[in-house]
Amino acid sequence: MIPPNPNVMRGVISTLNKGSYLTSIPEEGKGTWNNAKDMQEHYDYIVLGGGSAGCVVANRLAEDPEVKVLVLEAGYADDIMSSKTPAVFLLNVDNAVTDWQFKTTPQVHAGGRIMKQPRGKILGGTSSINAMMYHRGPASDYDEWESLGNPGWSYKDCLPYFKKSEGFNDPDLPPTHPRGPLTNRVRKPLYETFEPEYHGTEGPWQVSSHYLHGASEGFVRASIAEGVKFNKDFNGESTIGVNKIQTFIQRDGVRSSLSRAFLKPKGVVPGGGARGTIRVVLGADIRRVLVQMKGGVKMAYGVEFVDHNNVPRRVMAIREVLLCAGAFGSPHILLASGISPSPQPSIPHIHTLPGVGANLADHLGIGVVFRARNRCHVAHKDFGYGRSLPAYINYKLRGTGVLTSQIGEAVNFLRLEEFAPDFVAREKANGTYKERASGPNSPHIEIIFAPYYMKKHATIMPDDSKNYYTMIALLLNPCSTGTVKIAPKKGSKSVNGSSPEFETVIDPNYFSESFDIRVMAEAVKFMRKLARRMNQDPEVGGREVFPGESAVPDDDDTKLGEFVRNSAETYYHPTTTCRMGPSSDPLAVVDNRLRVHGIDRLRVIDASVMPKLPAAHTCAATVMIAERASDMIKEDWRVPSQSDPIAARL
Ligand SMILES: Cc1cc2nc3c(=O)[nH]c(=O)nc-3n(C[C@H](O)[C@H](O)[C@H](O)COP(=O)(O)OP(=O)(O)OC[C@H]3O[C@@H](n4cnc5c(N)ncnc54)[C@H](O)[C@@H]3O)c2cc1C
């Protein structure tokens, strides 16, 4: 996908698109970081992290004209091509300008590998660098959240909030629609099906269908031929089956990140009209939440951060501190604030919460690469001047074409007993089968089809890259769980009396349960079946090039297991590191209104609070959580009453 000659692309882009840059922005374009001039000492709410959840929360709270919201974000403005243009989103991964570039500890059950863990360090957070797949997951996963001791989080309760944020673009909407020009692209009505009762059309987050490569259609056909049922709408009644995935891409082909959807609309920034104000400070490195004892209660009252100019600052919250720093950032900030499982050296201990940083769950993916008969790669090494210029002009003028592909175009969601019944029977007979899915309609495996050479987060590209496609199997219900901890950063010093800097130590403990490996090995066999089908398709073809059937034969479980162990990578869905649960759950960090157990006026609102990793891509669920939390906060502050413990102390 990386264009062959970045200089050529850069030239084309800056000529056609003054003001936007490919992967980085010059100092003066970085955004509103110079807070010394106009930052206040107090805000009603301080949102820690201007990422996926943070942008939603800031917008919704500032619907109250009386309210002032401060958003502190470590990254910078998102007006860069690598974020805006779907097909080049992987340029953001491992890019110091947009990615935190986290790494895991050596993974002892995964060949000792140190693995990448990309996270967005940019306005919009990970929603500004991700693959834009809009997927909520099965209803029973949310019912399971409720059954784990979280009243109000069943699917029935969550659905209105999924719909609230969504601005679903029915492909038949007229070109005059207020959400911008409908592109002149050729529709693929066969794949752009949906169940309207499950979608919202008035929310700011745009969901639509865009590019579908011919090979991706071949994948859908091959899956159906292998017995996978066609799914009209993965976000509708059932999520099982095969189809094109819906995407959060605007009607004009630009990424609908949560910052673009919730912070950019006219009047939101910097807070005009009949709304409260939102002040966004970029380049803010949050060090800790400030907590004091008041009336025998521990209460969050502010935040300490180091600004873009390396100046330590403190800012106070009149109402609440809202931690939205993501599945790695939120436990990191809590631990650095002394809210942790046990006292840590050099950090004043404030409160003991054993669950902070525990329970880390993530989706691993195993990729198999195939060589197609014909050109099958959306943006490859021969994507030079001759093709990139017309593609770019087409994209800019019409919002159509190959640059609107988000690479993972079509997917299967599968149950094990459907694609590997013998395996299930064998494991059950041995007493080793582990059912982690929430119910019979929750999938075990997802297979993503990418018309693209996808190895090591797409950092490797062969010279003849144009003819490859990759299938990636994601393990949706992993048994293995890990931890997030912090450690003093080497060489870091306190800046003018600020708290010291810590490193985030991420140990997902991948494959600590060998059942996870055996399930993924079965998925590899099924991907090969699909590729054999595709090979019969004159349009596509499909000869395996990695790992190769002779190197890793289907009938050699040991070699298959080794391949999975040594090649699987994160597919980017870390969650549950500050999980929601009742106070009776020793590892719960927040209650069902997302308030931190034992600390007043502090909530966590992001992917870290999920009680269990859903069998889904995690952005839509994160946004739903942020919508719900915003309403809860408004409810808690609207009517002061003696029965409300927060309001009673006002
Ligand atoms: C490459 C990639 C592809 C993905 N593809 C998809 C997909 O297609 N569909 C999908 O549904 N999900 C996808 N995901 C996952 C999804 O994007 C995330 O689950 C979701 O965006 C998480 O939202 P969040 O609000 O929890 O965290 P984030 O969006 O990461 O927000 C956290 C914010 O806090 C900031 N922050 C953290 N620490 C600090 C600090 N100390 N000081 C200041 N600021 C701080 C961060 O910079 C960031 O902006 C993908 C993820 C990646 C990495």
Indicate the topology.
Elements (H helix, E strand, L loop, with lengths): L5 H11 L25 E7 L3 H10 L6 E5 L8 H4 L17 E2 L12 E2 L21 H9 L7 H11 E3 L36 E3 L6 H12 L15 E4 L13 H5 L14 E5 L3 E10 L2 E10 L5 E12 L2 H11 L2 E2 L10 E2 L11 E8 L13 H14 L11 E5 L1 H4 L1 H10 L14 E6 L17 E8 L7 E6 L13 E6 L6 H23 L6 E4 L10 H11 L1 E2 L31 E3 L14 H20 L6 H4 L2
Parallel strand pairs: 1-2, 1-11, 2-8, 5-6, 11-22, 12-13
Antiparallel strand pairs: 3-4, 7-15, 9-10, 10-11, 14-17, 14-20, 14-21, 15-16, 16-17, 18-19
This protein binds flavin-adenine dinucleotide.
Flavin-adenine dinucleotide binds next to α2, β9, α8 and α14.
Description:
24% of the residues lie in helices and 18% in strands. It has 650 residues and is of the alpha/beta class. Helix 2 links the parallel strand 1 and strand 2. The chain is globular. The termini are far apart. Flavin-adenine dinucleotide binds next to helix 2, strand 9, helix 8 and helix 14. This is Glucose-methanol-choline oxidoreductase N-terminal domain-containing protein. Pfam families: GMC_oxred_C, GMC_oxred_N. GO terms for molecular function: flavin adenine dinucleotide binding; oxidoreductase activity, acting on CH-OH group of donors. Residues 539-558 are annotated as: Disordered.
